[in-house]
Amino acid sequence: MSTLTKILITFTLLMCLAITLSSTPTQKSPLDIEDEKDENIVSNTPSARFGRFLAQQPKGLMKCNKNPRLCRAKGSPGPDCCNKKCVNVKTDKQNCGLCGRKCKHMEICCKGSCVNPMVNKRHCGGCNYVCKRGNSCVRGMCSYA
What we know:
Elements lengths: L2 H21 L9 H11 L8 H4 L24 E3 L2 E3 L20 E3 L2 E3 L21 E2 L2 E2 L3
Antiparallel strand pairs: 1-2, 3-4, 5-6
């Protein structure tokens, strides 16, 4: 056989092996059992017809309506309890400063205040990015143009 034929056969075998390995499911760890339970719950919800992405519940959500101290535990999304969820009212766009205070479309929550990072000199482009004295914030950048 010619060398070109040998190279093509070797290449074909490697591609077959790569396809086989990529389509083989990996072994599940014991921790994956809980994920399967969540999938079953999601599939039984009425919103399952819209797809798993829209129907899935956010992980790590802690209900704090009966025990607000739960929000101060290690690993909590935030120290404050709003609508049965642990949040950080200093940074949460849906509960900025107070529970239920939502920031507008172009605003973000910085230190409990809704600000527009495209024009705010104290939060230019993001929280706590301060423009130097005399510079303005345009399109989220200090002294643009």
